Amino acid sequence: MPPTNLPISRFSRANSTRRQFLQNSAATISGLAVSSCGWRLADVQSAPPVKGNADQLFIYTWAGYTDKALLDRFAEKTGIRVVADVFSSSPEEILARVQAGGRAYSIMYLSDYTVVQMKKLGLLDQLDRSILGGLDRLKKQFQNPVYDPGNRYSVPFSWGTTGLIYNSEQLKEAPEDWSYLWKHKQELKNRMTLASDVREVMGAALRMLGYSLNSTNPEQVKKAYEKLVELKPSIASFTTDAWRPQILTGDLKLAMCYSSDANEVIPDNDKLRYVVPSSGSAVWADTLVIPKGAPNPEAAYKWINFMLQADVAASLVERLSFATPSEDAFSLLSPEVRENSILFPSEAILKNCEGVAPVGKFIDVYDRYWTKLTSIS
Q: pTM, whole model, 2 decimals?
């Protein structure tokens, strides 16, 4: 993709990783080869960046989280040129690059679960909070998140929920909860998709049953699996991204998705709606981290502080359409964006949501059920 085509249409961040790192063991990840970076943004190089240049900052990011205007503004303020690589579709690529000598990046954009994995592997620098400003102005739920208590290794940059996007013209009644999928499974047969993510899908069933999304109770997780087995014949596929064109053309009536993706797709079809199920769902975050061995940590801290500036964060939300965790940035948004309930759901909705927390070795139980579920024909 030529760098002159900025800002680009956002390739799904969910497709690029989201919490699929839970499905990979550290041993498997450490043996991966480095894959090439399939999507490029801004001043992107195909060769590995050169270490040690104080006037350059190499970042590794999601599509849609930066644009040329942002990079130019940072360069004007600091004199530092930013070179941005964009994650391709492989979730393993992030860890593989870092573990196989890709530490020339001084900033990486990681999903909450990727922070957990990289922290376990000792691949992240602990942040010097005395250098950072604005952390105390983050929304409360992001000041001490389950994936990184105290934000010791990461700074949240954007956030969202997991819910359902649906065609209001094709459905007889609007879905309000996950239970809708079971009650209307015949109407939805082969016309709905669920995310390709064990914790999200099992979590939806757990919440519907009244349990925690992070349950480590074997009986509860078994019941969630059994409910999903009932639903499996009606599911067209498990996908995190391919539902987009299908729901726009009317081939799908409903899809499980991330709020940021729903917010992108809905303007293209005025019949589409998004809902966070009333029994509760997942709330997630994407973050900024400094990998261990970063060649330019001073510039990395400048980048994080720059991104924490209220006017910078607000401008990105307006231009690139994602939710900010900064209270100060939120106050600068236009009324139309502040009132966008897809990006910024009410506190009443959020109180029923949970962050997807690490479950330790119990992840093996989830993975076994997921393998069985996805193998059912």
A: 0.83
